[in-house]
From TrEMBL, chain B:
UniProt-recorded name of the protein: ABC transporter ATP-binding protein
Main location per the UniProt record: membrane
ABC transporter domain mapped to chain residues: 15-245
Entries under CDD domains matching the protein: ABC_DR_subfamily_A
Amino acid sequence: MAVTAAPGIGPFVRLKLRLIANGLRGRPARVAMFVVGVLFSGFFAVAGYAIFAIPGVADDPHAAGILLPLGGTVIVLGWLFLPLVFFGVDESLDPARFALLPLRRRTLVRGMFAAALAGLPAVATLVAMAGMVQTAAGLGGPFAALGQLAGIVCGLLLCVAVSRSVTSAFATALRSRRSRDLAAIALALLAAALGPLQLAVLAGAERADWDTVATVADVIGWTPLGSPYTIGLEIAAGRAWAAPLKLLIALAAIGGLLWWWSATLENAMLGTAAEGGRRATGTDRTPVDLLLVRRLPRSRFGALVSREVRYWWRETRRRASLLTFSMVALFLPVSLTIGSGSPGSMVIFVGALAALALANQFGFDGSAYATNITAGVPGRVEINSRAAAHAIYTIPLLVVVAVLVGALSASPGRIPGTFGLLIAAYGVGLGLVLPVSVRAAYAFPASTNPFAMSSGGGPAKGLLTFGLLFGAVLISLPLQIVALALGPVWLWIGLPVGIAYGVAAFLIGSGIAADLADKRAPELLAAVSPQR
Amino acid sequence: MTVPTQRTDEQVAAMSLRGLVKRFDAKLAVSGVSLDVPAGSFYGLLGPNGAGKTTTLSMAVGLLRPDEGRAFLLGYDVWADPAAAKARLGVLPDGVRLFDRLTGPELLAYHGLLRGMDAATVDQRARELLDVLELGVGNRTLVVDYSAGMKKKIGLACALLHGPRLLVLDEPFEAVDPVSAALIRDILQRFVAGGGTVVFSSHVMEVVERLCDHVAILSDGVLRRHGTLAEVRGDRSLEEVFVQVVGGRVATGSELAWL
């Protein structure tokens, strides 16, 4: 009857840990992925610590003044965007699941905030930032270290607050499916734009003089992004008055973000309203004509390809990945040129990256894949139709990239050879990705957040993607070396050789994938069906 | 109870399951289900939530690999000869297992072409089904934005499109309004009258009692009763038999006094 006192943060943290533990129970593959995640986090933590500790060891306050605020800013931005781009937002504590519990907003925000802190990324970030404490200690003794310690704790809180509030606000602010889809796409584009932007900034930094950078770092040190990371440095530099001010800036930012989060949380808990079934009518076209994309055969293959083509555009996750890739593919050559690098050096990377969109292609379908099993679609048709549909979008884009690279390096003659390299890397990427997409498929959660992956093991799935990309680049590398070695000859033979290389790799990979799909269709369906 | 006349001359059972077993982690979801569904029958698979109905039907139609046991559809082994078994099978899977980012007409066309039908037949049948089920021939709404009842109807249309001899339906009447339910019942009865076989799962006694000539009761992954409706029911109501077989609690005692 009587509602007892509001629970503290304990139950939320325990719930989060229990969710992680239960996710691992009895699943050796998940445990292995988790261990890889731990190793990766450990590496990040140690490397970060080492980097941030260098200015202290070298006794260089000038370098510290640049590294700490800028490094801290990168970490905050990383917390904001990495989950969106690579690892997926952790939805294990979805606010909608608490909607019916008599919890006050304050309790919920506090609890979920604490739960977000309990996890590998937070621990790794804290350890990495601890390097800043050592730097502060080296430069300014124990008081500076103490100030910096308070600073990095604030910094971590800031990271988590930014990550939770922004993703929560964006993913839930919009009601209908349609506008939600659009918002997701916009966010994907924003996230994708960040990479090229950063490259451009780095390229600019190479040429800029360090005094300017130091000034920028100084300014950033007074914004919420950098202020928590420079508290110790201010004390070390004898400006003790600045420390409480910067602490205040950081705390105000955290408070503001939490307030914003709690304001959007109520919307998040309401979930999604159903959209009225608008009946747009008025077409004389037959069902088959409506389904089939122009000029595709009126057959099983045509139907499969058409459905995939429509899905790449209509399904939010797919469209987001397609648009993200387009951004990266078009902006990478440009920003490399700005950075006085050669745009040709990223060609195989772009080609391999294109194929990555298919890494969990069956996961996009979810349990709908049952349709194809019931209809008895052979694995060969299944795999080839999916690759064909993806190629319909990708190959024109690769042509544009090749032209762009040719234009940027002011040698139109390079275009065919570059396109050959792109196709080769795309083919190799598909050859690697297709079997993996069958063997290591996983379910996306039935969530409103298009960036969400299933809870637990998120970093490990991101690692698998990295591995695939690395492998594809590695296998395509010989061709790139040959291209460089041959020089002008490659301009002539590049296109046919590249296409042959790519097609061969694709045929090998798709053959393996088709066999796997034939043998493991039910297991594949079970793997991509949300829950069970 | 009128048993529809059988017009098939094949004596082979429409669906026959032999010792199906499925384990999920430590839990035994289905333990040794053996069942024969006579051709031309209207077969109801009853059971409380979590009894293993969906798991059993998934194994029967080739969507979930059984740990042990075999399943035959119209005489073909589902796991040894899937192509032959699936050719004359129509399935309405549980939940929303449809490519729901297509519009209704597109989805039907997809199913038809996937089954290797020629485009003209697909168009003609799809229009007819959309018309009869009141889904709208020119409706450009994506299936994901359909209501629950409309989703069931489009799913049923997809299962019927290629003219199967056996229909396996998982909870076809769940979340369907009474008018649509009556329409679905009528379509299914016509299908059986035409010599087809329907197997469907449900936990709504009234529907099963009204439609089926054969029933099976499943609980905790074990087949408790099966046979014709008259055999299973005896002189009691199906609900009484069900509650007794499943052994659940149907009344409260002295607890919950604070309610």
